[in-house]
Design goal:
By secondary structure, the chain is an alpha/beta fold. It is built from ten helices and ten strands. Strands 3-2-1-4-5-10-9-6-7-8 form a ten-stranded mixed beta sheet, sandwiched between helices.
Length: 277
């Protein structure tokens, strides 16, 4: 049983994240923990007493939870999927970490409006979760299509060692969807590869050769801005999901937080699977 956490603010983006997760893991037994974390600031209550706030807010949240439960029941889901909805108040990251420990969460799935919701780490819920919570995160942009994922791009410069835990997660995603993996090296071509980078590349290649002999490839794109390279690569290779490791924060910032790249289509269309050890 895979335990998946889906934080929700009851927005359309959060709902789309839930829909995508249900579709993506259609053949996998899953329990979806849907978590709403509320704060006084988000409530919009400024002058009421705390007790009045609690009463009003509980009624409002109850209504939203009831609506969400009705939406879930209307979904076409298999018998191997179960759901539970909980609410809490306080710090989002603390609440998510607490839920991860208590419920043995394997994956977090979050919706976003794209680059505009991620370009600044501070103040962005999705950005905070990606960079501050040590659990795999699947980010679902607002314009993601609910299609079968058959081509996945793993973005790397080989400066990160791929641990067994990360490789197992990649393998699970590929097996689940019978997908092909295209490893894209975005390191500058003019720079010489270090022995450590070459070691990481060979290790990754050996692993994929053993388990996915005919369903992977390694490619290097020309020297350009990272976001531009990814845009061209995803378009020409018909990529339906991006994967990368959370440790590569420099690349993460170039890919997601570069305001000049906000209009590129992959920001608003392609799911991003961020891998943690």
């Amino acid at each position: 049983m895979k335990n998946i956490l889906i934080p929700t603010d009851f927005s359309n983006n959060a709902w789309r994240a839930l829909q995508y997760a249900v579709t993506f893991f259609d053949n996998i037994p899953c329990h979806f923990y849907i978590l709403h974390v509320g704060t006084l600031y988000e409530s919009g209550v400024q002058h009421n007493s705390f007790l009045t706030f609690q009463e009003n807010n509980k009624l409002l949240i109850k209504e939203k939870i009831a609506d969400l439960e009705a939406q879930i029941k209307a979904l076409k889901i298999n018998n191997n999927h179960t759901f539970s909805i909980t609410e809490t108040y306080g710090n989002l990251i603390h609440s998510i970490r607490k839920t991860i420990d208590k419920k043995n969460i394997d994956l977090i799935v979050m919706g976003t409006k794209g680059a505009s919701g991620l370009k600044k780490v501070i103040g962005s819920n999705t950005g905070d979760v990606i960079t501050k919570v040590a659990t795999n995160v699947l980010v679902i942009p607002e314009k993601t299509n609910f299609i079968s994922v058959k081509n996945i791009a793993l973005l790397t410069d080989y400066t990160i060692f791929y641990s067994h835990a990360i490789l197992e997660e990649i393998a699970e995603v590929l097996h689940t969807n019978q997908a092909k993996l295209k490893v894209l090296n975005f390191a500058a071509i003019k720079k010489s590869t270090t022995p450590f980078q070459e070691q990481n590349r060979v290790y990754l290649k050996d692993y994929l050769n053993e388990l996915f002999t005919a369903s992977h490839s390694f490619e290097t794109m020309p020297n350009k801005k990272v976001a531009t390279v990814v845009e061209e690569f995803t378009a020409t290779r018909k990529i339906e999901m991006l994967m990368m490791t959370a440790k590569n924060l420099n690349f993460l910032e170039q890919l997601l937080f570069d305001s000049a790249a906000e209009q590129l289509s992959f920001h608003t269309k392609l799911p991003l699977f961020v891998l943690h050890e």
